[in-house]
Specification:
The chain is α/β, with parallel strands linked by helices and 370 residues long. Helix content is 27%, strand content 23%. Strands 1, 10, 11, 12, 13, 14, 15 and 16 form an 8-stranded mixed beta sheet that branches.
């Protein structure tokens, strides 16, 4: 009897290498158009935020092709990637620059969000040396307690900034619901509007951008007729995942399933539902607890927290995620007869999206399909 060995297939030649993220460009394009039309109906410009997709060139071009002229990211490396790829947009750094990256910010960001005078002074010096101007949006603290200057310091900052060579103050902004979970409600937006009007009047500044927040502003926007001076929002998750970010409720008319994560079953066996032996810390550094369900079909996927924020995955089949380590995720397959080699599909939340798109171990596959 002659033994036949299947030819080795080089991994790079596999068309459906897993783990992978399938990205539906048609659905995202639909969301871009809908979000842009929604906010522009009341005079608000939408900045497309690319940090959730690690400055993906494909998605950056998609945003631009569907009418977004301004792209924001929190990583200078992503801005550089998009700019050097020829993406035709105005680029914005979505956080105050680190002192160590000031030169790169001047090179790759047209606008940066700022909250520290020492950084702004360094930006000014660098911009002058390069014979250019760095536009800045001054971030104001309105309660979420992430970046921003306290309101009582606004005058001191503006007086220090407005005559700096190499710096142009083009706006003020505030952040909400990212760190402290504080809502951008009517009171907060009215405060920002009053601050903008006061700065314009007292300092004779045009202040073209009053940037009121992000995808968390959807509820405020749809519940008010008066948006005041707010004319700019930084939108990422609503475009990508079709949700507002206060409760993660779907926005009517938008796709919430433009991203699907797939991982492959590498082991499928009937085993006990509770580990046996003396229990110590697991790979994450805590003592795990498990529910006694008797013997179950335990399926292992070849991904873990090194690849993806596993807690942000939701199986699209009736399965339970039992737990995970750095490079394995264990499922209770319940009544699904998963076998080795089967793909398992998941929807993703923003945390999972961010981790997957940043991960070098996950293949990205772009499709056009409605």
């Amino acid at each position: 009897m002659k033994l036949t060995i299947a030819p080795l297939v080089h991994p790079l030649k596999l068309q459906h290498m897993m783990p992978k993220m399938e990205i539906n460009l048609s659905k995202i394009a639909h969301n871009v158009k809908a979000i842009k039309a929604l906010y522009e109906a009341k005079g608000i410009q939408v900045m497309g935020v690319t940090k959730g997709v690690c400055g993906s060139i494909e998605l950056a071009n998609l945003l631009v092709d569907n009418g977004i002229s301004q792209l924001g990211d929190s990583k200078v490396s992503n801005l550089r990637k998009m700019k050097e790829a020829g993406v035709q947009a105005e680029f914005v750094l979505l956080r105050t620059p680190a002192l160590s990256e000031v030169e790169a910010v001047v090179d790759y960001a047209d606008i940066s969000l700022n909250s520290e005078l020492v950084v702004i002074n360094q930006l000014a010096q660098c911009a002058v040396s390069k014979n250019t101007v760095q536009k800045i949006i001054l971030m104001i603290e309105l309660g979420d307690l992430r970046e921003g200057i306290m309101t009582e310091n606004i005058d001191r900052y503006i007086q220090s900034i407005m005559h700096l060579p190499g710096i142009e103050l083009v706006g003020i902004g505030a952040n909400f619901a990212c760190f402290g979970g504080v809502k951008p409600d009517a009171e907060k937006m009215n405060t920002l509007s009053l601050l903008a009007a006061d700065i314009r009047n007292r300092y004779d500044l045009s202040l073209p951008y009053v940037s009121g927040g992000n995808s968390a502003n959807f509820t405020w926007f749809t519940s008010t007729e008066e948006i005041g001076e707010v004319n700019h929002l930084r939108i990422g998750e609503s475009i990508l995942l079709g949700r507002e970010t206060l409760t993660r409720m779907p926005i009517p008319g938008l796709y919430t399933d433009a991203f699907t994560f797939y991982s492959e079953v590498i082991e499928s066996k009937i085993k006990p539902s509770v580990p046996y032996g003396e229990i110590a810390q697991n790979a994450l550094g805590f003592y795990p607890a498990f529910e006694e369900l008797g013997n179950i079909r335990r399926c292992i996927l070849g991904v873990g927290f090194q690849d993806v924020f596993v807690s942000g995955l939701t199986p699209l089949l009736d399965l339970n995620v039992v737990g995970f380590s750095s490079d394995h995720t264990v499922l209770d397959a319940k009544n699904v007869n998963l076998q080795v080699g089967d793909p398992v599909a998941f929807s993703v939340n923003y945390g999972a999206l961010l981790s997957i798109m940043t991960s070098t171990t996950v293949t990205k596959e772009y499709i056009y399909d409605l």
